[in-house]
Design brief:
Helix content is about 30%, strand content about 25%. By secondary structure, it is of the alpha/beta class. It folds into two domains: about 170 residues, 2-enoyl-CoA Hydratase, Chain A, domain 1 (Alpha-Beta Complex); about 230 residues, Rossmann fold. The strands form six sheets. The protein has a six-stranded parallel β-sheet, sandwiched between helices. It has a six-stranded mixed β-sheet with strand order 6-5-4-9-12-13, with helices on both faces. It has a two-stranded antiparallel ribbon with strand order 1-2. Strand 15, helix 11 and strand 16 form a beta-alpha-beta unit. Helix 1 runs parallel beside helix 3. About 55% of the residues are buried.
């Protein structure tokens, strides 16, 4: 069986002997089709908001309006959505002072080139755009204590605005359940201390902190509470197919509209697990595969379909390197057991940036050999962090056969980020 798997801005080939291939897991986004133009889908959602009046009605009489959007690490189709969103706001308040705030969370600042790529020249040159910086303490303002006991502080622009609107997209998220909705506040425009505590070792270790799970998820519960307290009044969230085209949109209340969108995405992305000795996946290509810090998303999906001790293979370009100073320091501490114990000993109030991805990787490495397929990062660098390294999927698969035997079974998940592996008492062996 021949595959072309997402890698950077293209694909890499994979060849799996038919006698070894157990299953190929793809969600319905792979063949989801709609004849409706993307802009029409967005406009229709704005015309039929869930749980709120229309955005143009909310905008009436408001002077300072804040529009929060995703940063460079997300495939948000803002070139389509943002002009329509701004048009809808100005329909109700033509003279509004609108600020577009890039919700970076703890990521590096979005560059001018990345802003142009995301929005186009018209918006970049004519709208007021601010890039959030969670590390500028003087720009943060305290709001309240969250249900977990964490302290919530956010960008002052949110508290100085008369109306807060956010755009985003909904996809599976490996510990928040789903992206979108309330995440436009926490972590997107929160202080580093708030993000760190929301992503504490205790929260990440919760059984509810998992892909596709909202009920009983302490990370989601803090995020939803934060969105209400800060006053996120209206969201526009989209769902996309495998080609990153908008196939559905949900607008209105930050909790109700988001819940509708999550139900749609769960139905579109859910698959039943098929256990295998070797599981091969990707981190969805660029931009999500640009650094190692982002990649636990795809690997976590692979692990949900692997037998105990099974080999996980992840394709990721890592063109932007490891992706975080603290993450790198933690990953270089030593064995996975050392990393896990070090992070679990950190109290929630003392959580440090990026510890959560190192925690997840440590837990995965304790259970599975992980082979990273990257043509940008040197294999020796990956090996220093406990991984095995390969330049191609075929090389990685040969290494996996050496570990598990020539008759080892293989499951392929072409896009590990877009798939929700449903929980079940017994793993399917179809």
């Amino acid at each position: 069986m021949d595959f072309q798997l997402p890698y950077y801005k293209g694909t890499l080939p994979l060849h799996v002997p038919e006698r070894n291939l157990r299953h190929v897991l793809v969600n319905r986004a792979e063949d989801f089709r709609t004849d409706r133009p993307e802009a029409d889908i967005v406009r229709d959602a704005l015309a039929h908001p869930i749980g709120t009046p229309p955005l143009h009605a909310l905008a009436r009489g408001k002077e300072k309006i804040l529009v929060i959007t995703s940063d460079h690490t997300r495939s948000m189709p803002s070139g389509i959505t943002m002009p329509i969103l701004l048009e809808e706001i100005r329909k109700g308040q033509p003279d509004a002072q609108i600020t577009i705030l890039i919700g970076t969370g703890l990521h590096r600042p979005t560059t001018p080139e990345e802003l142009l790529d995301r929005f186009g020249r018209e918006i970049v040159e004519h709208e007021h755009i601010v890039v959030h910086n969670a590390f500028q303490a003087e720009e943060m303002r305290y709001v309240c204590e969250l249900p977990s006991g964490a302290s919530l502080s956010v960008n002052r622009l949110a508290l100085e605005s008369d109306l807060i609107v956010a755009e985003g997209f909904i996809e599976p998220h490996f510990f928040a359940g789903f992206s979108g909705g309330r995440k436009s506040i926490l972590p997107a425009i929160a202080s580093q201390e708030t993000v760190n505590e929301n992503h504490s070792a205790r929260a990440i270790a919760s059984p509810g902190a998992a892909t596709g799970v909202l009920d009983g998820n302490p990370i989601h519960e803090d995020m939803a509470y934060a969105a209400r307290k800060v006053g996120l009044a209206f969201i526009l969230n989209v769902a996309m197919d495998a080609e990153k085209h908008i196939v559905a949109a949900f607008a209105g209340d930050c909790i109700e509209a988001h819940a509708k969108g999550c139900a749609f995405v769960f139905d579109m992305c859910g698959v039943d697990p098929v256990a295998a000795d070797i599981v091969i996946t990707t981190n969805s290509g660029y931009p999500l595969d640009q650094n190692l810090y982002q990649t636990p998303k795809g690997v976590s999906t692979a692990a949900a379909c692997a037998k105990e001790g099974g080999v996980l293979i992840l394709g990721a370009s890592l063109c932007d390197g490891i992706g975080g100073t603290n993450f790198e320091k933690l990953m270089r501490l030593g064995s996975p057991e050392v990393i896990r114990k070090t992070i679990e000993a950190i109290p929630p109030k003392e959580s440090i940036p990026e510890q959560w991805c190192a925690q997840i990787y440590a837990n995965l490495l304790l259970r599975h050999p992980i082979i990273i397929v990257s043509q940008h990062m040197e294999g020796q660098e990956l090996e220093h962090m406990g991984f095995l390294a390969a330049k191609t999927f075929d090389q990685a698969l040969e290494m996996a056969f050496q570990l598990k035997g020539a008759d080892a079974s293989v499951t392929v998940i072409p896009d590990g980020v877009s798939v929700i592996v449903r929980k079940s008492k017994e793993v399917s062996h179809e």
